[in-house]
């Protein structure tokens, strides 16, 4: 199937759909894991579970960064399906703004996390593997703490945007039944 074959009836390409859902599942795992590991760290609980939470958060966050970058490249190459005429202009604008803010946060949040672990000197993940150091970032634990604080606040903002995005998708699927949800669903009949 050609990556360019997405008109208003077909939706996004199969690759774009899989990237969306894989990244979505990772993000919906990363958010609670991130909040949980920070709670454990603030409670000064430094055990194997806390270490595993941090290691997996770093590894999967780094993966999300590259999946979203790939998704954005495909999004730049391919046109997005059009909304049906029944979707008002204000709702279209809200949806597009929400989607682009989510894309931006899905790049910025992992980049801040990567910069933070580089500055903190905590690039190790699993089995002796480490993330590469972010170029241009020097060791500085105070700077790392500032980066992590911003990383956390942006994660909270991402939660709000994801709630709006998911609510809109469910509205299209369950109430409007206008085919918009099918643009990104796996196994859609409109491929």
One letter per element, helices H and strands E, the order comes to HHHH
Mean pLDDT: 91
In DSSP terms (H or I, runs of 4 or more residues), the helix count works out at 4
| Helical content class | 55-70%
Uncertain stretches of 5 or more adjacent residues: 1-8
Number of strands: 0
Q: Which term fits the overall shape?
A: elongated
Largest sheet, if any?
none
Whole-number radius of gyration?
19 Å
β-strand amount: under 5%
Give the total of domains. Answer: 1
How far apart, in Å, are the first and last alpha carbons?
9 Å
Topology of this structure?
Elements: H1 14-42, H2 48-77, H3 89-120, H4 141-176
Helix pairs in contact: 1-2, 2-3, 3-4
Verbal overview:
The protein has 191 residues and is an all-alpha fold. It has one domain. The chain has four helices and no strands. The chain has helices spanning 14-42, 48-77, 89-120, 141-176. Helix 2 packs across helix 3 and helix 3 packs antiparallel against helix 4. The chain is elongated. The relative contact order is 0.15. The model is unreliable at 1-8 (pLDDT under 50).
For this entry, give a set of tags.
191 residues; mainly alpha; 4 helices; 66% helix; 0% strand
Task: Describe this structure in a few short sentences.
It is built from 4 helices and no strands. The chain has helices spanning 14-42, 48-77, 89-120, 141-176.
């Amino acid at each position: 199937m050609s990556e360019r074959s997405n008109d208003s009836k077909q939706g996004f390409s199969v690759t774009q759909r899989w990237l969306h859902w894989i990244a979505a599942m990772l993000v919906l795992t990363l958010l609670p894991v991130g909040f949980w590991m920070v709670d454990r760290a603030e409670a000064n609980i430094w055990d194997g579970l806390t270490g595993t939470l941090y290691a997996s958060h770093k590894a999967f966050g780094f993966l999300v960064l590259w999946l979203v970058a790939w998704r954005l490249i495909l999004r730049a190459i391919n046109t997005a399906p059009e909304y049906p005429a029944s979707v008002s202009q204000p709702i279209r604008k809200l949806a597009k703004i929400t989607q682009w803010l989510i894309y931006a946060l899905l790049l910025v949040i992992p980049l801040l996390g990567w910069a933070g672990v580089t500055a903190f000197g905590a690039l190790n993940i699993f089995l002796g593997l480490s993330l590469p150091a972010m170029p241009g970032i020097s060791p500085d634990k105070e700077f790392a703490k500032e980066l992590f604080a911003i990383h956390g606040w942006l994660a909270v903002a991402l939660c709000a945007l994801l709630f709006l995005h998911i609510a809109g998708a469910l509205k299209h699927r369950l109430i409007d039944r206008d085919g918009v949800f099918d643009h990104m669903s796996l196994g859609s009949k409109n491929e």
